[in-house]
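User: Hey, quick favor. My workstation is busy. Could you predict this chain's structure for me?
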Amino acid sequence: MYQGSCLCKKIAIKIDGPISSIIHCHCSLCRKSSGTAYATNGFVARSDFTITKGQDSLSMFEFKPGRNRYFCSKCGSPVYSENLADITRLRLRLGILDSDITQRPISHNFCSSKANWEEFDAQLPHYDGFEPSR
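Assistant: No problem, here it is.
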């Protein structure tokens, strides 16, 4: 089980299952929404994900039709996102987790979109788009 919270601690989550397909995404959208050089994302089963505190502090932004991003309305921390074309899983920005995770990133993605000041510091495969298994 994993636990997490937003920056201001208004929202708390728990995950009762594994985190899969963890990647470092360098696309401009992930950079903008995270405010960093890249976002580390992973998928969890929707059935394993619970908001344990602060549901009323959760706000939603529909980025594209059927693609919703949920964040804390007080501190702005991303909590999760969903793609209604695949309702079985949610995508997390792993920075929300307070627990150590056992799974590890499998790749850097959208490397051709990386920030011009970013230097790669991990010995992972690098792809110009999604990892081949997705």
